[in-house]
Amino acid sequence: MTKTELYEFILTCRYGVLGTISSTGTPQSALVGIAVTPQLEIVFDTVRRSRKYANLVARPACSFVIGGWGPGEQTVQFEGEAEELKWPALERHRAVYFGAWPDGPERMHWPGIVYFLVRPKWIRYSDFDRQPPAIHEFDFPAGIGIES
Asked: What does the alpha-carbon distance between residue 135 and residue 83 come to, in Å, rounded to a whole number?
């Protein structure tokens, strides 16, 4: 599997379970609607009053589980670093998000709506429908792009 194939798989997934760490060190999870960039960055929205917002601002390391809800057993485990998007990056990445979530512009009027970008550090793709199972891991040192 190439990074381009991984990108194409994540494009088919609308949701991911986001894992963050609270101020007391306890893990917290939330199901969020996601979009993905060709660089395998995940974009999602939330509101400032959410637990995930406070967690990510204080401790940007996070994880996702993506896939596994359909008929097959393909999943992505994703570890990365979150950044609250500000202009001008906000405009570019929000366009990616709105491409996946056409109703996203309606939420722009919600009080405290914000957008996060999560850059990958490590990703594992697993396909347990194959025998033997196909498992592919990808590391993302700083500055490395999606080239296959």
From this structure: 28
pLDDT tens track for 95-112: 999 999 999 999 999 999
Helices (H), the chain: 3-11, 51-58, 89-100, 104-107
CA proximity to 119, closest of 100, 93, 137, 98 = 93
Using one digit for the tens of pLDDT, what is the confidence trace for 23-66?
999 999 999 999 999 999 999 999 999 999 999 999 999 999 99
From 102, 81, 75, 101, select the one nearest 9 (Cα to Cα).
75
**What domains are there in the chain, each with its CATH number?**
3-139 (2.30.110.10)
